[in-house]
Amino acid sequence: LVAELGLYAVRPDLEGLGIPQLMRVMYPVLQELGVPFGFGTVRHALRQHIARLLGRPGLATIVSGVRVRSTLREVHLDTPPTRIEDVLIVVLPIGRSMSDWPTGTIIDRNGPEL
User: Fold this and answer.
1) Using an 8 Å Cβ cutoff, are 111 and 42 in contact?
2) Model pLDDT for residues 34-88, shown as the tens digit of each residue
3) Which of 10, 18, 62, 91 has the most C-beta neighbours closer than 10 Å?
């Protein structure tokens, strides 16, 4: 079980403050919940940008080679009910170290993208 960091978008007080601020605000909350990891997704084209934003080594790790499967919000008879994306994963270790991150090649959101 991991916490998807995309939920910050529903918090107006965090909008526009950037990813480092999000992590500083959400980290204690996720620690309190006992979550082992937080994660987010980003397009490959933004790799350098996100690496620069993360700044301090150890704050988060960019993981490639992992696809993300999610359920589409609207299902139609002529299209598959799920989507698989090849994106970069940004992993924020919360209750465990990065060495404990699973070695699999797919994250199943078990629902739609947040």
Assistant:
1) no
2) 999 988 888 888 888 878 777 666 678 899 999 999 888 887 888 888 889 999 9
3) 91
> Does residue 81 contact residue 75 with C-beta atoms inside 8 Å?
yes
Residue type, 13: D
pTM assigned to the model:
0.75
Instruction: Scan for tokens 């598959």, then name that residue.
Output: 80
Cα separation, 69 vs 61, whole angstroms: 20
Model confidence band, residue 21 (pLDDT cutoffs 50, 70, 90):
low
Rounded to whole angstroms, the Cα distance separating 55 from 15 reads 19
Q: How far apart are CA 39 and CA 85, in angstroms?
A: 15
Q: Which two tokens stand for residue 28?
A: 């204690």
At residue 14, does pLDDT exceed 60? no
Name, in order, each residue with C-beta under 8 angstroms of 5's C-beta and a sequence gap of 6 or more: 22, 23, 26, 38, 39, 40, 90, 92
Where are the chain's structural domains?
3-108
